[in-house]
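Appendix B, record 7
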Amino acid sequence: MRTPLALWALAAMLASGAAARAATISVQTAAPVIDVEELLEVDLLVTGLGDGGAPSLASYRLALTFDGSLLAGVTVTFGSALDVLGSGSLRGVGIDPGSVTLTEESLDPAQDLDALQPDAFLLATIVLEGTAAGDSDLSVVVSSFLDTAGDPIPVEVMGSTVRVVPEPATAVLLGLGLAAIGGRRR
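Structure tokens (predicted):
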């Protein structure tokens, strides 16, 4: 009797280890440095889902967070991986100081998401604008990340950093102004 019980325990451990495999959300920027008033595209990429099988992402709610005194949210463009059949998805966006919140829920049947959704894809592209000089972390706070059965998918986040610098024209004008003041004193 001990052998079958031990086998069941081992099977349960292996099954729970396989289910605990985490997906990864990566924050990727087009440039690590931008000027004040310059726009920055930030891609949210997901990897580590099932390729042609479960787990597939059926819905999520997350927020890109940043220093709201240095950056401001402008626009969001969603990816298409939660709409594999062209049925659409329910989407929501909230742009607040310091964060852009995204929600999306697929309208496709679970079996089609599992069969057709790739294991890696673009969740969304968020455009931010530099508003003041400084360094800002870009991170993701995940509220929900659910598979086709409505079960949570474990998620790891790989953030990024962006530096906002004064516009070159402003720095040149400031330098010229200081030089003019220095020249008048002589």
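Remarks on this record: The chain has one domain: 22-185. Confidence is low (pLDDT under 50) at residues 5-19.
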